[in-house]
Amino acid sequence: MAGLLIAGLLLAGCGALSWRQDPAVRAADQACREPGQTDRYACIELNALQSLNPEICRLAGIAVHDMCLQAVYQAADDPAVCEQLYLQGVRPTCRAYYQSRARLGEPDAAGPVWHSILFLRTHARATELWTVNLLSEAAERRVRPEHVVQDPAVSPTGDAIAYVRVTGDHGGVVSELWLVDPEGTNPRLLYTPPAGQSVLSRPTWLPEGRQVAFLQHGSGTRSQLLGIALGGGQPTTILTDCLDYALSPDGALLVGVDLERRLAMYDLSGEWIGDLAPQNIRLTDLGELAFSPSAGQLAFRATEPGIDTWNLYVMDWSALSARRLTDLSGFHPATAQTGQVNGLSWTENGGHLVYSVDGVAEHAGIWLISLDGLVRRRLYAGEEGEWAAVQGPWYQAAGRPVGATDG
User: Fold this and answer.
1) What's the domain range around 271?
2) Over the stretch 257-280, which tens digit does the pLDDT of each residue have?
């Protein structure tokens, strides 16, 4: 964003010093020079937000006033504020922000419609299933399970949730695959793995909603990708070496990460199609893979040499070109601690990504980000001491209006 902003330092309107005659600017300048005011920038931004006056941001100085302007237009909820920004280079970003908010309600014609994202919320020693609405930013509890739940995934028809139930080490079985209705009723066992191979994760529905894929591994065994029909029975093996994966929206293809952290594409029978290593960046680990609704891009979290923190990336298939969208620095004591990405999902039109960060208060929570990384806003902050992780879309069951609640 810095290049765009520095290129736009030309002032709009009247002379360079006339802005200092604005009564709101003068009041903010005086307030932020008061004795005991240790963070002048925070004071300036607070005054700018309270008055929604971008002129106050000039007080912050050339190095940081663009951040203040961004905070103002995100708080304004009024596209007209874009024309009041004195940095011309920020105006296109501001307009793009409001255009992107309008597009959030426009679904991809090729895919299902959803306006909410499912996330796991752990607080008060309980793990619950919550959703956050991408338009209103309203968070709502959906299910409060009676047992420990991991990796919930809503069926494309919206009438069931597949999840991993953590059982503990009971007779060698650590976890099982279960189904439950969206209201949290009618829990039912779908699959119990054999002892010694009972660590299950990442259940994913096939598009028709009649099968579930999932990962299984255990002591002395490789992580395998399996698939099972809703009627139960024994699962079929899709890949014998798979640490993580994602299915294409039509269910015909999948991408998988093997034990050597190589990324490749396969058909649904497990037949290798080709390797997918990014050509412009070296990654040391990657996971939480997710196809875009149009299948033209892949989002994932990854680490790089010298950056041992999970950050958010997106890759275009055409050039196998990946770009990092976040700049988190993990929890290493020798660095500025921020957090790491622990979950992600696409929006329904494929124009944005939703991701969650496990970290310090300033960065923790659930965020929405544009694919160029220029527009970002927090959807859910949570409470101190809690943990939240994005799981995927919250599909609406047939006959239920989008945005319906279980109220």
Assistant:
1) 116-393
2) 999 999 999 999 999 988 998 989
